[in-house]
């Protein structure tokens, strides 16, 4: 399977066919990969730029990293608990929130604040001589976001693995079997729903 997109032209001409999704449709991993590619491009070309061009490129890059943080929180934290499309609440997944540590929070808050400071969202104070971040700062930042993403995804996958293990244990354990038989004998399904039966 490959990515395809049709993008509307501002001129009103027929849309352009693209071989990748636009930024707004990319998931967290795709965005991180693109940001890493953009960093490699900046590294190759920056010696030919003046300071204003470098500030513009890094500000755009930082804005995209900030948006990636927002997508990450939306999809991997909040989206695990509430499905935005259906408004379905998943109470069991609330346990994922409990796994997020103070250190996770501190890393997120610090990184998001740096991205916001670097991005071109607000006028830079004339009292502060703003200097655009160095390339190694940007590299360190995207690496930190990737590590945070991997860690938080592991929280929900560990919960899913634990849940599956519990279900399997209840299904096959000789210790759990008498409890299930007793429970099944008390439950009746008027709608013909398949119940746990052993």
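Sequence proposed for the structure above (198 residues):
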């Amino acid at each position: 399977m490959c990515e395809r997109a049709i993008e509307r032209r501002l001129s009103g001409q027929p849309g352009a066919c693209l071989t990748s999704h636009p930024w707004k449709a990319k998931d967290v991993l795709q965005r991180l990969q693109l940001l890493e590619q953009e960093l490699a491009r900046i590294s190759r070309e920056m010696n030919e730029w003046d300071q204003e061009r470098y500030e513009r490129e890094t500000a755009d890059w930082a804005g995209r990293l900030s948006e990636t943080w927002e997508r990450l929180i939306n999809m991997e934290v909040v989206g695990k608990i509430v499905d935005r499309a259906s408004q379905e609440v998943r109470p069991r997944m609330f346990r994922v929130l409990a796994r997020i540590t103070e250190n996770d929070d501190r890393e997120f808050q610090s990184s998001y604040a740096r991205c916001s400071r670097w991005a071109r969202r607000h006028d830079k104070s004339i009292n502060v001589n703003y200097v655009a971040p160095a390339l190694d700062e940007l590299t360190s930042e995207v690496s930190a976001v990737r590590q945070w993403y991997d860690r938080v995804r592991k929280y929900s996958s560990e919960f899913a693995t634990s849940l599956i293990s519990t279900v399997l244990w209840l299904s096959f354990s000789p210790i759990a079997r008498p409890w299930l038989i007793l429970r099944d004998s008390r439950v009746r399904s008027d709608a013909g729903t398949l119940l746990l039966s052993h």
